[in-house]
Amino acid sequence: MRKTIHNTLFTGLAVASIGLPLISGGFAEKASAEPSAVSMSNGAYSTSIQAPVIKPSWSFPVIPIDRNQYSNQAVAVAENGKVFAVDPNHRLVALEANSGRKLWQYGDQLTPILIHSNGIIYGMTQSGSIYAVTESGKKVWTTPLGFTKADQIHRIGSTVYITQSEQTAAIDAASGKLKWKISEDKNSYSGLGEIMETDGVLIRNYNVQGSLTFEQINAYDAKTGKKLWDSFRTSFPLAVKDGIVYSVANTFMIDDDPVNHKVTIAQYDLKTGKSKGDRQYRWTEPENKDGVYRSGGVYGSAFLYGKDLYVFQGETLASYDFWNYKPDSKPARKWAQNGYDQLVPLLSIHEGRMFYQDFSTSRLTAMKLSSGQFIHYDGDNPTVQADVFGKGVYVGQSDGVFHGYDLMSLKPVFADNTGSRSFGPTLKSGGMIFIQSGNRLLGVKLPASLK
Hints:
By secondary structure, this protein is mainly beta. It has a domain at 342-451: Lipocalin. The chain contains no helices and 40 strands. The strands form 11 sheets. Strands 4-40-39-38 form a 4-stranded antiparallel β-sheet, with no helix packed on it. Strands 5-6-7-8 form a 4-stranded antiparallel β-sheet, with no helix packed on it. A hairpin with a 2-residue loop joins strand 9 (110-117) and strand 10 (120-125). Residues 127-374 form the Pyrrolo-quinoline quinone repeat domain. This is PQQ-binding-like beta-propeller repeat protein. It comes from Paenibacillus polymyxa.
């Protein structure tokens, strides 16, 4: 039996050929163009989106988006009527959100790794130091770390955490004092993007390489950085409650029954990592006659939203009351997902919609939880970046056109031709959105229907 983890991206290439009559001496001769060995066409983007074109209120140059160098790049952040961005000279600048007017600048040789928390902007320098600046541009502190390729910055309570692959550092948010810095084995660990602190324990996830590579969570003493425990083949926690950590266990190539499937939720003591048993959510499927065993994605993943655990069971999405677990309990609700094997769950719900990415078309897709109806936010070119705020869906396409849609009606509300096929995450503050496109930051005043 062949085994695959369901995360394959399919692409298509359209090739066209045409022959024209040749005229010689007044007579039409038979065309002699060589026939193609392969010919196909793709009408997926043959219909253009019709929407009013609006111009940005302002544009400001910023450092170009480079996902190869900074996988979690944040060229800008928007808060409290201001936008904070890294300009082409690697300085932090503050802009008035409505007008784009420059208010101040700070530093140099800065990187596009930024967060805003409690009125402070935290960022990284090219030399690997972390800095803190107030919203008015006043320096609070700078602390050298040697993290020249930092991935992310997180502020949790009174601590700022910085990650760089297998390394983690903890900084006192008020003083900038280094609390601790640790590193796992760089030959087997590769850091992932999630981190949480609860009841004095810091939990971080990694990919860890053994005979196979799987996700692992490590737990540390938040005060000292001392490692308390780890768990291989375990996803970042769904929840931590009453001293128990709940995480999805990866059973790929351990329990691959082609008919009887299950998602296992492992339970660990927060302080010690000692197993507290597990939960199993089971379902059955007809055996796949092509001999392929599918897992992950729509074929066996789960996430928690409030009290509801959503389990993706192949052709079915099921929800359970997570905090009232009973062995072999039946789902509280079920939705059909058949025919959607190219969907990858984004593990998020907004306005009563479950969101997915369709890898066959690159588009953002949603399912109405009230009816089970699937809806597609179709563009006229492949999607590069998609973000949802309130009642708006904002999509940057590979042709450089940026579209704004009404979330509920799917109606295109506006379009903007940015001139770049590169997009970062869209930002929103008040009645403005800020488009990160190429080496420009564009401020766009939203139409009334999307505010």
